[in-house]
Specification:
The protein is an alpha/beta fold. The chain has two domains: about 5-30 and about 285-425, Alpha-Beta Complex (Aspartate Aminotransferase, domain 1); about 40-285, Aspartate Aminotransferase, domain 2. The protein contains 15 helices and 13 strands. It has helices at about 5-10, 40-55, 70-80, 90-100, 120-125, 145-150, 170-180, 230-240, 275-285, 285-305, 335-345, 370-375, 375-385, 385-390, 405-425; strands at about 85-90, 110-115, 130-135, 155-160, 185, 195, 200, 205-210, 225-230, 310, 325-330, 355, 395-400. A seven-stranded mixed β-sheet has the order 1-9-8-5-4-2-3, sandwiched between helices. β2, α5 and β3 form a beta-alpha-beta unit. α6 (about 145-150) runs parallel beside α7 (about 170-180) and α10 packs parallel to α15 (about 405-425).
């Protein structure tokens, strides 16, 4: 991607669009809610083929290896370098299945980041356990020091989230887990295809959970999958997902683990054949999508690196991010000030959210999770003051894989314009 003429990219706008000035752009910012998807005619043809075949369950009378779901699972194993994959109904169910398969005592405390989507603690609760939130650092990564304290206090497992596509420090997390003799599930839902040190996120821990929801790297509307090398735990996950009456055995061409498929409840968390066909076709073009995300993200970050007034989110290691979102903080700004900044960017034609906006029910702000904390948001914030501060300062902008150079230049121009206006205040 080549930079355009900076005189074109950074016109001398002086009045913000939110105050009546001319916006940087008038075209909609591309997001999946507006129909912006990464899909090809070949992907559409695969889904249509599955529909026309009228065989919508993997557990029919076909040879198992010929089903779309099984072919997808085989391809996932080859792509990610793991032994077992389970295509399921969503990223949330993938997380829950991984936790269920660990066979923890009911009601176990399970650590998870405070900065995450509420599906993470929800999956812990769905599995019958109790979420224990962990602080984040200034780059919005899991605070491994606080995680160590939570494990010291008796957490039985941890769910580590690669939030908004940025890797957590998995080598340190796994060292802590081994030291404390606890199991780990990676919530790689927001980071499908990203790597850390050349290794795919979602392959460091006992289980890796992924989503194929509409805005993910494989976008099938809804869906997800689970990865592991643990055959016995995989067998339990299969039973929980709905592999009843011996159907679990179809997933093991060789020796079958000694797991009693009538000893566990059945939840029906399977992926259907239509989504499996679509996901399988898209998997072949995953490298193209990943390259597009990285190209857009790196271009924008390079252009904004010297921008005053913002602190760009930094990865835990070089290249350890997906690139599907731009995140930065406004250091020492109040949530209300951050909300004004985000609204000003949106008025310039760039979709942006302040995660801590008091007027926005943004579910990534943990203090809004009344299902965990009740109605007192200030009390919830006081429990995790660092996470409350850093999430409250965060601005989030989605970066479609389909962005053009002109789109990226509009983003850079809008951030520069709004930052300059806010510094003048």
């Amino acid at each position: 991607m080549t930079s355009a003429d900076p005189r074109v990219r950074r016109p001398a706008f002086t009045k913000l669009a939110i105050a009546g000035g001319h916006p940087v752009r008038t075209r909609p910012w591309p997001t999946y809610e507006k129909g912006d998807v990464f899909i090809s005619p070949e992907d559409e043809a695969a889904a249509s083929s599955a529909i026309r075949a009228r065989r919508y369950s993997r557990y029919d009378d076909r040879p198992f290896e010929q089903t779309w779901a099984r072919r997808l699972e085989r391809s996932l194993c080859e792509t990610f370098g793991v032994r077992h994959a389970l295509a399921c109904a969503s990223g949330t169910t993938a997380l829950a299945l991984g936790l269920l398969a660990l066979d923890l005592p009911p009601g176990s405390p399970v650590a998870c980041p405070a900065f995450t989507f509420p599906a993470t603690p929800s999956a812990i609760m769905l599995a019958g356990h109790r979420p224990v939130l962990v602080e984040c650092d200034a780059d919005l990564h899991l605070d491994v020091g606080h995680l160590s304290e939570v494990l010291d206090r008796g957490a039985k497992a941890a769910v580590v989230v690669h939030m908004r596509g940025y890797a957590s420090d998995m080598p340190t997390v796994m060292h802590l887990a081994r030291t404390h003799d606890v199991r780990v599930v990676e919530d790689a839902v927001p980071a499908l295809g990203a790597r850390l040190g050349g290794r795919y996120l979602g392959t460091f821990a006992d289980f890796g959970a992924f989503s194929t929801q509409s805005d993910k790297s494989l976008n099938t509307g809804e869906g997800g999958f689970l990865l592991t090398d643990d055959a016995e735990a995989y067998a339990r996950a299969l039973v929980y997902s709905g592999a009843y009456e011996g159907r679990m055995h179809r997933h093991f061409p060789g020796d079958v683990p000694a797991v009693d498929d009538l000893a566990y409840p059945i939840y029906g968390f399977r992926m259907d054949e239509i989504r499996a066909a679509l996901a399988g076709a898209m998997l072949g073009r995953l490298p193209q999508r990943l390259a597009a995300h990285r190209r857009n993200h790196d271009y924008v970050v390079t252009e904004l690196a010297s921008q005053e007034g913002i602190a760009l989110r930094r990865p835990v290691a070089d290249g350890a991010y997906l690139g599907e979102a731009l995140m930065f903080r406004l250091p020492d700004a109040t949530p209300t000030e951050c909300a004004r900044f985000a609204r000003a960017l949106t008025a310039e034609g760039i979709d942006a959210r302040a995660l801590g906006d008091p007027a926005d029910a943004n579910v990534r702000a943990f203090w809004q999770w009344r299902f965990l904390f009740g109605p007192d948001q200030e009390q919830a914030r006081a429990l995790l003051p660092r996470a409350a501060r850093y999430v409250g300062e965060a601005i989030d902008i989605p970066l479609s894989a389909n962005l053009t150079v002109a789109d990226c230049d509009d983003l850079v121009t809008a951030v520069a314009k709004v930052s300059a206006a806010f510094r003048r205040r």
